[in-house]
């Protein structure tokens, strides 16, 4: 529900996140920096290049969506940034740190495509799980209380329930809440709402937007939905396939804070036309 994900931390406006970065060199490295990422799977005849020369800089506190045809390497790109798979070339830094050290320090929160909750654990235990599994990562970190996070995500009543007792949308919110236990500076989300029906999806989207507007994180968000990408993002990265590469980056200059009214504006419709025609060009190119 819109508003359900609102966190009770102090609001961070426009450049509040930026203010935390004081040293000019830190500022230059802040956010996610992706340089010349190149990734292939297989060897010999079966070798295929999945990502070719991906360059992208995501500013601290910026919300960037990635959209593109199935198989163009969106999930692979997220996995490279999360340190779940190694690239064959290029490099990624997270607030100036290598992926390895950022992952070790739990600076990255990953929300996978399906909620991946353990059915035999309660909601609270599912959210506590990363703390138990990564005991050593807790040292010196400003951990958030799982109970507080769940309350902020509107799941206070669900704390002692099991995943099967929740709706799909609530399960998704538990998965998003779980990514916040370590208060990561970067959030990677791989089509988190894809399994939901349109109404539920819109509610979750507005909830995420509301949350992000009051608690800015650097976000890289994969989606297949054009309105979703526009509603949430500062910029939309359109990828092409075979090999996966960035075809275009579209700025979304809609004023913030945004709410559902924005869908009906001319600016929104113009952007929708622009993103859709870019995607069409990418798809046509693929079939030449
Ligand atoms: N572990 C793997 N081994 C071999 N090939 C893989 C592996 N993971 C992904 N691929 C291939 O890499 C390409 C990109 O996959 P990826 O999952 O990144 O695409 P995607 O853009 O996320 O697609 P979708 O929109 O369908 O989720 C695909 O052709 C896929 O078959
Ligand atoms: Mg994918």
UniProtKB/TrEMBL annotation:
Name a GO molecular-function annotation. ATP binding
Occurrences of domain ABC transporter (ranges): 32-266
Name the SMART domains for this protein: AAA (SM00382)
Instruction: Return the InterPro entries for the record.
Output: AAA+_ATPase (IPR003593), ABC_transporter-like_ATP-bd (IPR003439), ABC_transporter-like_CS (IPR017871), ABC_transporter_ATP-bind (IPR050166), P-loop_NTPase (IPR027417)
| Region listing for Disordered, in residue ranges | 1-27
Highest taxon of the lineage: Bacteria
Arranged from A to Z, the UniProt key words for this protein are:
ATP-binding, Nucleotide-binding, Transport
Q: What is this protein called?
A: ABC transporter ATP-binding protein
Organism encoding this protein: Saxibacter everestensis
């Amino acid at each position: 529900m819109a508003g359900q994900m609102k966190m009770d931390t102090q609001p961070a406006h426009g450049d509040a996140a930026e203010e935390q970065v004081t040293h000019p060199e830190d500022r230059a490295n802040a956010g996610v920096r992706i340089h010349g990422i190149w990734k292939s799977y297989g060897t010999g005849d079966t070798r295929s290049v999945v990502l070719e020369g991906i360059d992208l800089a995501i500013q601290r506190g910026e919300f960037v969506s990635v959209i593109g045809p199935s198989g163009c390497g969106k999930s692979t790109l997220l996995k490279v940034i999360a340190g779940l798979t190694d690239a064959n070339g290029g490099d990624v830094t997270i607030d100036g740190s290598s992926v390895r050290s950022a992952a070790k320090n739990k600076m990255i929160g990953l929300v996978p495509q399906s909620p991946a909750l353990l059915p035999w654990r309660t909601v609270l235990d599912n959210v506590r799980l990363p703390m138990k599994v990564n005991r050593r990562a807790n040292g010196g970190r400003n951990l958030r209380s799982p109970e507080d996070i769940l309350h902020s995500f509107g799941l206070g009543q669900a704390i002692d329930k099991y995943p099967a007792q929740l709706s799909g949308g609530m399960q998704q919110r538990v998965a998003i809440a779980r990514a916040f236990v370590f208060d990561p500076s970067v959030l990677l989300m791989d089509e988190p709402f894809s399994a939901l029906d349109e109404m539920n999806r819109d509610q979750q989207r507005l909830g995420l937007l509301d949350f992000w507007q009051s608690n800015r994180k650097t976000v890289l968000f994969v989606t297949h939905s054009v309105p979703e990408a526009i509603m949430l993002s500062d910029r939309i990265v359109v990828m092409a396939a075979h090999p996966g590469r960035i075809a275009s980056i579209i700025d979304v200059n809609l004023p913030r804070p945004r709410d559902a009214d924005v869908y009906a504006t001319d600016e929104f419709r113009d952007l929708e036309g622009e993103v859709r025609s870019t995607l069409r060009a990418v798809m046509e190119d693929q079939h030449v």
